[in-house]
Design brief:
It comes from Galbibacter marinus. This protein is an all-alpha fold. Helix content is 84%, strand content 0%.
């Protein structure tokens, strides 16, 4: 059974994602119009540049979820308190490192972007870098409090606070830009909202959950355990930055900021796709840790893996199919024909990520069993090769060459990981693919049937787009319902309000 906290956390996660995506859909063209495509490209490029400092979290947040969940399962309160104290000592060192490295990066801004940015853009870039360095140095240790709540399987209130944060942030963005704000103003808003969120999470963890952070002794074995676990989480975080943000820097060295803006729109839409899946998968790392501590059988792990994967796949296929069918029209209505190339970028990203996102619980199990080192090596190698080849291809084929190479190596990485999960976790991947094939066939059937039907919708504009999405949604639901098991059908029925159910 799925606990109320997980159900509530998942629902609030989707509420947050729905709100942020809808707000993002509304705000992005407003931001582009207010800033201009060129300054929007500058804003995303500098965000990508400083964003690399966030990987210096070294996966400590994931370590907190894993180890606190472990200490709670073992009822070792003293060990938990000491672990958290040691974690914050490490965080202090990380924040100092961020400030030092960020300052060095600041000194080289002229050398890196002096040829592609105007003097005014370069001055704005320097101000944004300073603010973002402070933001990252504070946000990384502040994230520990959210991780503590996750480890305590307290999902609902943090998710609710996060939802409020996004809503307030969106309102402030509209107001500030309306009164003539620029990209620097957006960076300031993000920094202030992050600080408020950290204070709220600290209050929840320390006063509501009554978590104690108490230093007893600096155990070398504990520090090494944190390091051995975190270093590969750090590698995975670095990979994420390389895949989705390094491209903006590569393009920034060779192309004008308008090209970067188009590429950024594709990456943004691709990130929305990943967010819908992670809303569920992010709630299950404590579950994976508990299964590991209890030494659950491979059969139980396989069944849980497939159960979570199927739920994620239903959501991912719906978004993927909808975007394939109406994505061009959506981008045209959303940000205009200037960004039409973003459609192909987005489709490639979505297809490339579908297997990875739907199987993310396997990654949680690898982390819980401390067997994610191999995945870190594989994904880092694949990403470095993909980015290197993409850089080369971008010189002659632009952004499409870059993203095609990255996606191709994502597929190669996933093939290797199927073998590894079968070997190390003893998850029956053949059973998984047999189960997955039914969903894939129904998805393709829904896609093929819907394509000609959407041509019957003659209404233009946003209304026509929503009609097409509704038509595809109805066809998709009918097809997928045929392969749902009893548990999934019951879950669907539970989501329907009692007042709408047919009484017998």
């Amino acid at each position: 059974m799925i606990s109320k906290e997980i159900k509530g956390g998942a629902l609030l996660s989707y509420a947050t994602i729905f709100a942020t995506n809808i707000v993002g859909i509304v705000l992005t063209p407003y931001i582009i119009k207010s800033l201009g495509a060129s300054e929007y490209g500058l804003y995303t490029m500098i965000g990508a540049f400083v964003g690399y400092l966030t990987v210096l979290d070294f996966g400590i947040n994931n370590s907190i979820i894993r180890f606190v969940a472990k200490y709670r399962a073992e009822k070792d309160k003293k060990g938990e308190e000491n672990f958290l104290a040691v974690s914050f000592i490490i965080y202090a060192i990380i924040s100092l490192t961020i400030i030092i490295l960020g300052s060095i990066g600041y000194l080289y801004l002229d050398d890196l972007f002096g040829k592609t940015l105007t003097l005014e853009q370069l001055n704005k870039a320097k101000i944004m870098v300073v603010i973002l360095i402070f933001n990252v140095a504070v946000t990384i240790p502040g994230g520990a409090f959210n991780a503590i709540c996750m480890a305590y399987e307290n999902f609902r209130l943090p998710k609710a606070i996060n939802l409020v944060k996004y809503i307030l942030r969106s309102i402030l963005v509209v107001v500030i830009l309306f009164y003539g704000g620029d990209s620097i103003s957006l960076v300031i808003i993000d920094t202030v909202m992050n600080l408020i969120f950290i204070v709220a999470m600290a209050y929840l963890a320390l006063y509501k959950l009554k978590v104690k952070i108490r230093y007893y002794t600096f155990e070398k074995t504990l520090a090494m355990s944190i390091f051995h676990y975190s270093v590969w989480v750090f590698v995975l975080a670095l990979v994420n930055k390389l895949r989705w943000q390094f491209g903006q820097l590569v393009l920034g060295l060779n192309y004008e900021t308008t090209i970067i803006a188009i590429y950024a729109v594709g990456i943004t839409l691709g990130s929305y796709y990943g967010a819908f899946s992670s809303a569920i998968s992010s709630l299950f790392l404590p579950k994976a840790m508990q299964m590991t501590v209890k030494s659950e059988s491979p059969q139980v792990m396989t069944e849980t893996f497939i159960k979570i994967s199927r739920i994620s796949t239903y959501i991912l296929f719906f978004i993927l199919g909808g975007f394939i069918l109406v994505g061009r029209q959506f981008i045209h209505l959303w940000v205009g024909d200037t960004f039409r190339e973003a459609y192909l970028f987005t489709v490639l990203i979505m297809i490339g990520l579908t297997f990875t996102l739907s199987q993310s619980f396997g990654n949680d199990l690898l982390q819980a069993k401390n067997k994610h080192r191999f995945r870190g090596i594989v994904i880092l190698t694949a990403t470095l090769l993909g980015v290197a080849l993409g850089w080369y291809l971008s010189l002659s084929h632009g952004a499409i060459g870059l993203i095609s190479s990255i996606v191709a190596f994502i597929f190669l990485e996933r093939i290797v990981m199927w073998w590894y999960m079968n070997k190390e976790l003893q998850i029956n991947m053949l059973y998984y693919f047999k189960d997955f094939s039914g969903q894939l066939i129904c998805f393709l059937v829904a896609l093929v049937i819907s394509y000609p039907l959407l041509g019957l919708v003659t209404t233009a504009g946003w209304l026509g787009l929503f009609c097409k999405i509704a038509l595809f949604g109805a066809m998709y639901s009918c097809c997928m319902y045929q392969v749902m098991n009893r548990t999934e059908k019951r879950l669907v029925c539970d989501l329907i309000p009692a007042s709408l159910k047919v009484r017998r």
